[in-house]
Queue: 4 jobs
Job 1
Amino acid sequence: MSAKTQNERILFGLKVKQLRQGRGLSFSDLSQSSHLSVSYLNEIEKGKKYPKEDKLKALADALGVGYEQLVSTELSKSLAPVGELLQSNFLNELPLDLFGIELSKVVEIIANAPVRVGAFISTLLELSRNYALKEENFYFGALRAYLELHNNYFEELEQAVEHFIRQHEVPASRPISSTLLKQILEERFGYEIVEDGLDAYPELLKLRSVFLPKEKRLLLNSKLTPNQRAFQFGKELGFGFLNIGERANTSSLLRGRAFEEVINHSKAIYFSVALHIPRDPFIQDMKAFFEKERWDGEAFLAIMKKYDATPEMFYHRLTNILPRFFGMNKLFFLRFIHDPEKDTFEIDKELHLSRRHHPHGNALFEHYCRRWVSLSLLQDLHNMQQEGKYVDTFVRAQRSRYIGTDDEYLCLTIARPAYPTPNRNVSVTIGLLMSDELREQVAFYEDPAIQYREVNNTCERCSITDCRERAAPPAVVNKREEWKRIQERLEELNQ
């Protein structure tokens, strides 16, 4: 008999367990009638062993079923959802080991309550079909959870960057010359770099780069800014220096094919950011900034410009450093894309540390609160563009108090035109949850120049009646109130 896959062993084990329990047999009972040891039967039910033909016949006789019925891949109604889950490959692809979870333990949970777990799994799979959730949604969700678990700080990657700097004699001064990084890629990693390599492919002009592994050719978008080009070089150096094999060959992940690819992409990004913005001097820069008595947006931007970093690189580094070295571990990061022509705002990147904070992505096609500084700054940027004023980067601070809660955030936002994508703007925001510790660390927290606003999550869920920025009726609030009135009337009638 050919070797069985892990999924086949798991399903067979669940089937044996169901038959055994359905006949009221203990492991000891089944062991005596089948002449198989209790430990071996236990291994079968856990999906670790698949018996040979002679043992299968003995097991079938002991369970009171025919041999063909026992080895059939047809599952009972209660086990069918579990089979569907295993066949979907989700369990095998999920990075359980990163979270210290053994697949065998997950199987044990399934085996201990197949009917209840099966119903739950059926619900998940039905939701995934209805909302077009695919494997990559799980990968990206698992990646965010992994980053949040580690407060988005990885000492081994920090040390790898320091080792790279020493080995390749990268100067301590910043910014790093993109020419130097290009030279290292070409001379020490065997790259061929084509500066305008994507220009001949109109369908690829939204990408920043494409790597062709067979020729080790890196095709760049000629519209990249110098710091974007330097970041791409740093990321490629990360792939090479960290000996990463399974990787995406596009500058951004269009579709995660496997979790290993998703997490490797994240490592290369971290490497590049840490290379361009060294940890220790950056800590000193941020310490001096937080000691200022007044909010100074220009000083904030000056730190970013010191390292010739993009806003995304700058904010990525903030999420690495603030939790670890400033104790600011209750924070969120959001990146918004604004399409002025359609007047749509979309969150395409987010990170939450310590907990899921109030401002977060909503996949229900609702309208994000226009009072958020992330959106108001984008709207102001668009208005200035409409007036013919050129603005490269725009910064603003806001104290955002969430209605109906005690939560207040200090939000620092940078908005800029999207490169290389035309006619779109981007904002990045880091929000720090207000606390006594934060007030002590950030001297300018109470600066009256910082805008203070009451905010909510989406217009549909907001009860503010006099909001001038409202983009949609409070549909969810109205529905909730309607249901409340129905319940109150029913209680009256039953008195």
Job 2
Amino acid sequence: MNTSSVEYYGTGKRKSSVARVHLRAGCGEVRLNGRTIDEYFGGLAALKMVVRQPLAVTETNDKFDVVASISGGGISSQAGALRHGISRALCEFNSELRKRLKSEGFLTRDARAKERKKYGQKGARRRFQFSKR
């Protein structure tokens, strides 16, 4: 790879996952934690599609190589964090793409997270079984 080329950076977050994304000029290769997208997500085509959505919407599929390091959360939230990070990096590359990405909802940080367990209860909402006698 050419290290002197321009690089665009974006941080994506979803639940407890964080993706640090670097976009470099290239042919559309996606590397996640040193592995290809097929090795990382296996046979989960839906997650691979989620990751590539920002590039498809902005028609930059074959313009950039994506190099990302992802940590935390599960595989689904990591895909969401990666989509968020790619979208932010694309905005850094060209601010005119922001309108298209915003209308698709890729720049919005999905704030939904797991609710904490409360004391005196079995879970966040679930109660212990009630016994009258």
Job 3
Amino acid sequence: MKKSTISIDKHFIVGDIDKRIYGSFIEHLGRAVYEGIYQPGSPFADEQGMRKDVIKLIRKLNVPIVRYPGGNFTSGYHWEDGVGPKNERPEKLDLAWSVIETNQFGLNEFMDWSKKANTSTMMAVNLGTRGVEDAKNIVEYCNVKGGSYYSELRKKHGYEQPHDIKLWCLGNEMDGPWQMGHKKASEYGRLAAESGRIMKMVDPSIELVACGSSFLDMDTFGTWEDTVLSECYDEADYLSLHQYYGNRDNNTAEFLANTVAMDRFISSVISICDAVKAKKRKSKSIQLSFDEWNVWYHSNEQDQKLERWCKVPHQLEDIYNFEDALLVGGMMITMLRHADRVKVACLAQLVNVIAPIMTSDTGAWMQTIFYPFALISNYGRGTVLNTIVETPVYESKHGGAPYLDSVCVMNEENETLTIFAVNKDLVDSMEITCDLRQFKDYRMKEHIVLTHSDLKAVNTEEHPENVAPIIIENERIEGGIMQMVLCEKSFHVIRLGK
């Protein structure tokens, strides 16, 4: 049995957790909107066509913010097509995903849905095929109380009060050649700067996310971030990161080692942001918005066979297994370890499309990745402690990968300490020692474990709890020292409190 040590000091902190780090994402893609969150005529739908069973599961995730309407879809979207009387809304080609968009669900419906799901909105503006004028207009429509053309148009559409959206994305993946209207870094940087400046003239209270590179392996990575921020540093508040991982080679150890790559990715982007800050002699720090992240590879082959220009295809519908849940837990731990700079993050996506929630005409159910997200989202509120993990490592293509990923979250208001951990050893249990003498009055409240004998085990509508958390008791605290055993290939939530 391997042994690891977790060391913490309640005075050595990383930073306070911004609850928006537990955000998610809904794009007009596949069945995310239609048949996902919105399905008029379904026995599960309310009077507006919103799926009540899906809303119930989303509330369990405790998602504070949802990015909308994309994604690649954003770069060709005319938001005006999705507002006003539904019988006047045009059906249009969506070039991003080669389907027909009916526009029967749009901005105002999304805002209604957000309230029902107890979440807020992160709105993306089209800087691909559109630009400054349209960015200005949508902020006016959403956030101005009245007295102007677009604010009065909103009222005409039945929304007297402004939507008051506070967080906005300046386009999406603008260095990607797959993106409609993709641009050079200098072109996008100038457009982002001017769009952001005008948007903040309409509503100075909003915050803006500038596009970073589409993912770490882009040839543009690094120089893109530097050039873009050099142009729009004053207007931007956040810089985006996007990254997906897959296990196409069926090498679980390498797959789980992607947390090392993710940690390095975040650190690199922080360094670039701070280098631009130094060059421009600014006092403001750019924070990070990791607004697309997940496992994505299961559906790639299937998606290549889709018919073009259909409506609501089964697209990007990854069926997640147990090892995917382990990596999702590790990725969330990795972001929390950078909570001082990662302030927003969006699991991509929320329903049906590479998602923790799946639907059919007969119900909705939770995929394996639902559980680590829900557990960390609900119990990971407070302050991240500087968590020193001494653990054996194994070799991977990313270098030495720790067998144990872990982070500790202190919530002084609730007087709780929560330890999140993933044991990536596929064959052996791990004995953990943690010094809790600074938390001498704390006692074990709950130890939740997600594990399964089969790494490829999945949840289905017929067997929705094949992979699901259990509660165990195998830890002891003596003299302020906690010892516990983490079974092989497992995700853990250890909750302590007074």
Job 4
Amino acid sequence: MPPAGGELVLSLTQPDPTSNRSTGRGRRVPVALLAALAGLLLGVAPPLQAQGFGIYEQGTCVMGRGGAAAATPCLDGSSMFFNPAGLAEVDRITASAGVTGIRPFGSFTSDRTGEETDLVEKTIPVPHGYGAAPLGDRVTAGLGVYAPYGLETEWPADGEEAFDGRFLGYDNSLQTVYVQPTAAVHLTDRLSVGGGPLLALGRVELNQRLDLSSQPVPGTEFTFGQLGVPFHTGFADANLDADWSTGFGANIGLRYEPTERISLGARYLTPVEIDYSGDATFEQVSTGLVLPDNNPLGLPGGTSVDALLQQEGVFDEGGPLADQGVQTSITMPGQLVVGAAVRPLPRLELEADWVYTQWAAFDTVRLEFGQQQTPDDVQVENYDDTHGVHAGLEYSATDRIDVRAGYFWNEPASPDAVVTPLLPEGERTQGTVGIGWEATPRLQFDVAYQFLYQLDRRGRTVDPPEGSAPTEDLNNGLYSFAAHLFAATATVRW
């Protein structure tokens, strides 16, 4: 970006097709903003744990054993997420509350410059809470509140360390909370079923820097880029804030114990469609550029480009960057889990789960804008369904202390063409350890640690040309990503 107060040398040029510079009209800016929103909504930036932007850490006990819990639940109520049928094993009034702190770190290395830009490191809290009570000998009911999908990321947007991908998004968050009343029934001594409806609450915020080179020069048919403004010259900040919106679904499960040493389980979390409605607002950022003498626009030398944009009403009501409403509908993917557990020794349990997530539901996203001059837009994502494997163990070291360990792997949901700062996800492996301590017959504490390692993956920091689908040819660098996760839960029983 040119320094503040710099003179702009304007010369009429044709756009460089190799620069990935947009040559769209002014209305493309809100389209680009919401295109980034679409990628954010179903595409983590960075992904917090599971494929896409799924979060699988909904209970510290289960986290310690690698997320494997479909066949044998932890008795803290977290089976409301992992397998509702497991809630039938809760035989006392139980309440638990906990939080997982996720601290991601990563970087992007540019092919062109070789420079590495780091994510702004922060710890992201993800809470969970469950309450359950037996209703007779065979029925248990409860209520769970958890966050199965979410993300938060921040890249530097200003100064010498400013990230080139800030024009796709630099400070973004997605929050999704599920509220699930649940009932589980022992149909026989060995077979139980469970499930419940769920209310999904979701909100999103996206901040993006806008590129002056892609904007039309007022009163002409040319863009500023064609007149010499460098690619990725920031001139405005765009903020999109979609407040809490709702969707509905269900979570159902089955659990069977063929012998005293073997347990089998399965559960299905249905897809949930959430209709988002929000506001896009725009704030001008100074470029410091001025027009030279004898410029092609016929304006006096020294004319401020920033003042020119204000004079032409770019940010005024009815202008291309006027504040406006926007709507879109996103489907949170369904998820199928099948698991088995074996108890080879009285104090040792081994668990394994297979997780299938229906990310292919994230195929296209339609964006509807509040201004007539801003046409609706359809974004192509083409996500793939994914597989993951979880394995863990739990060993009762004493009557009051359990030790746990686990490992899991999952493949990426996003194809190569849509790896961006909003979702630099890739193939991941993760290891976990945990301890459970029964302080008293009524009070238990669980803690766990997890390390997430992701294979480096090529991606992009630029948009495809207007009207074009993204391709791998746009990938211009390498994303690296990893994370530390810490969790703690307290459980009270009466």
